[in-house]
Write a structure and sequence with these properties.
The chain has 217 residues and is of the alpha/beta class. The chain folds into 2 domains: 145 residues, HAD superfamily/HAD-like (Rossmann fold, 3-Layer(aba) Sandwich), CATH 3.40.50; 58 residues. Helices cover 45% and strands 12% of the residues. A 6-stranded parallel sheet has the order 3-2-1-4-5-6, sandwiched between helices. Helix 9 links the parallel strand 4 and strand 5. The longest helix is centred in the first third of the chain and has 16 residues. InterPro entries: HAD-like_sf, HAD-SF_hydro_IA, HAD_2, HAD_sf, PGP-like_dom2. Keywords: Hydrolase. It comes from Butyricimonas paravirosa. Pfam families: HAD_2.
Length: 217
Amino acid sequence: MDRERRLAALFDMDGVVLDTEGQYDNFWREQGRRYHPDKPEFHKMIKGQTTELILKNYFKGNVALQQQISRELDEFESRMDFPYFPGVELFIRTLQKHGVRTALVTSSNNKKMAHVLMAHPEFTELFERVITADKITRSKPDPECYLLAARELQMEVDVCCVFEDSFSGIEAGRRAGMKVVGLATTNPREKIQDKVDWVLSDFTGCVYDEFIGLMER
């Protein structure tokens, strides 16, 4: 690959940029315990999906309960902490210095993003585009969100790299025809390594040349 060719890095948010999955595990584990006691791994089953899809698939036909869970989730997210994973901010800024385009692609909605932006106003510098659940009609593992990010950046899919942690997100990146980096933050390395092009524990020590090496494969 010509090193002068423009590239794009598309980042999932929870479990990739922000170390928040443990907090969500607590919330959805409680919903599973209350409403789906037959599914002890409920909090893992819904990883990477939009809230709308979770409510549709697992609380179908009970509008009152869907509304209740949605309200509880909104309140929960308003009180969340949003810590970065080690090294991620530096890595993104390094990519930008080398001309790599960046976008955030998340299953979270605009209301959740408002809370995140209050904690991290620098997101407006780190990401040229933000794709939320409110911009798409099909949740991951459908590739719609990543294809939309590429279009908004005016980049071809073969120069885009997806950074994901969940199985559904990894599949979405694959189905979009993009390179995929898997973060072993939500699932063990051995569970994702055969599904991605590169596995990271976090972004500590991650350098631009390694990213370029991946994109040149």
